[in-house]
Structure to design on (423 residues):
């Protein structure tokens, strides 16, 4: 690590990229701490303490939601738009052709559609979030005009973060959106540590030791699962053209255990928040029947066992769903066949597609269970220790470790390319 830092210090271009990214993250954190007017800070703190899923949504907003800043939605609408557009490829062949067959121009056009979709999603999510905050007396009574201004500000904040994320991605050191979320998590560390020391109790030393051990185990598990993959051997048939022989080489197809990343968790959080927001909004209804039903729904969803079990179930389901979106065994089989490749012992064509589907289904089961456990880990820790300050953010650990591993890989790759250029 020290040697790598020394190489970074001597690599002017790489050092310039890192400082540029750091500067953008500082700008982002500055904006995330500018709150909207009329916010009741005490009520806001109470709401986040009582609602675990708002805390998770706050992670993906980079901390902007907990401050009710102009970037209160963070990059969540952009992530949702990206997921929807990826799914639309399987429904509309024209979109798939645009993204996969029209080269860089097609991908730029596809990304432009994703940006357009982000705008209405951001407007809808900001309206839902503001309505929820109003129902909880966190935002003072606001006029329709002020409501429109706040929604437009939130949409503009999301567009600005989307632009920052793309600027970071262009530097070739990792995904910009992931880095923005990473910055929000890291920025919250001092608050979490101070909160831990504020509740320090020497009698709970064993509990704190258990917390530390569980945290280290979680980090190790995240690294193990993130780096884990199933290697599928690939062979290529020999082809004779004149006096030359082509092909005959062997390679492999790596299948990651966690193909979906944190996307299933984002999906699950968004889906669970929808009925919660609607119920909290309808509690204020003048219709007593509607208000009574809304109270029952809100109370039901606040039960720790209910939302914990539902959360785990949705994460597992969405892991399989998103893996099916990003990994198409039929397409891979067709590409292998076109290139003259095959899996030893498996017939090309449909048999190869069925074999790959069987393998990915089995390893996705492990990845889905892992993501489910990571998602509900804070609830389990809180139930074991009884101390809310010790709720390990399993999702936060997953994001931080993933971003750091990706950043290190990109830095090592660029340092290696630089070493080749010196010869």
């Amino acid at each position: 690590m020290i040697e790598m830092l020394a190489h970074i210090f001597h690599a002017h271009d790489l050092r310039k990229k890192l400082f540029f990214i750091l500067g953008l993250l500082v700008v982002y954190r500055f904006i995330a701490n500018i709150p909207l007017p009329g916010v009741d800070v005490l009520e806001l703190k109470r709401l986040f303490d009582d609602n675990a899923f708002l805390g998770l949504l706050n992670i993906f907003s980079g901390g902007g939601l907990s401050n009710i800043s102009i970037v209160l939605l963070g990059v969540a609408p952009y992530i949702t738009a990206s997921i929807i557009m990826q799914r639309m490829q399987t429904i509309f062949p024209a979109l798939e052709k645009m993204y996969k067959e029209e080269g860089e121009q097609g991908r730029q056009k596809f990304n432009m559609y994703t940006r357009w979709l982000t705008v209405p999603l951001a407007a809808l999510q900001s309206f839902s979030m503001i309505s929820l905050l109003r129902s909880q007396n966190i935002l003072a009574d606001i006029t329709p005009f002020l409501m429109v201004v706040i929604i437009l500000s939130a949409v503009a904040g999301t567009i600005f973060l989307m632009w920052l994320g793309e600027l970071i991605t262009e530097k070739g050191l990792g995904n910009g959106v992931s880095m923005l979320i990473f910055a929000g998590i890291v920025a919250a560390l001092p608050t979490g540590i101070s909160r831990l020391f504020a509740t320090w109790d020497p009698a709970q030393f064993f509990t704190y030791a258990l917390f530390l051990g569980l945290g280290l185990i979680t980090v190790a598990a995240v690294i193990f699962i993130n780096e884990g993959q199933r290697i599928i051997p690939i062979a290529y048939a020999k082809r004779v053209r004149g006096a030359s022989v082509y092909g005959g080489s062997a390679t492999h197809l790596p299948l990651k255990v966690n193909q979906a990343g944190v996307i299933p968790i984002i999906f699950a959080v968004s889906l669970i928040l929808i009925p919660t927001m609607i119920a909290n909004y309808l509690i204020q209804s003048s219709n007593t029947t509607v208000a009574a039903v809304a109270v029952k729904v809100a109370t039901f969803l606040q039960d720790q066992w209910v939302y914990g079990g539902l959360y785990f179930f949705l994460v597992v389901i969405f892991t399989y769903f998103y893996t099916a979106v990003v990994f198409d065994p039929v397409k891979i089989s067709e590409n292998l066949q076109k290139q003259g490749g095959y899996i030893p012992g498996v017939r090309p064509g449909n048999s190869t597609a069925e074999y790959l589907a069987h393998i990915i289904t089995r390893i996705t089961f492990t990845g889905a269970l892992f993501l489910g456990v990571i998602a509900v880990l804070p609830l389990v820790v809180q139930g074991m220790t009884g101390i809310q300050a010790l709720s390990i953010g399993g999702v936060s650990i997953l994001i931080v470790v993933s971003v750091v591993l990706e950043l290190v890989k990109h830095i090592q790759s660029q340092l290696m390319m630089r070493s080749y250029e010196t010869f």
Remarks:
- DSSP finds 17 helices and five strands in the chain.
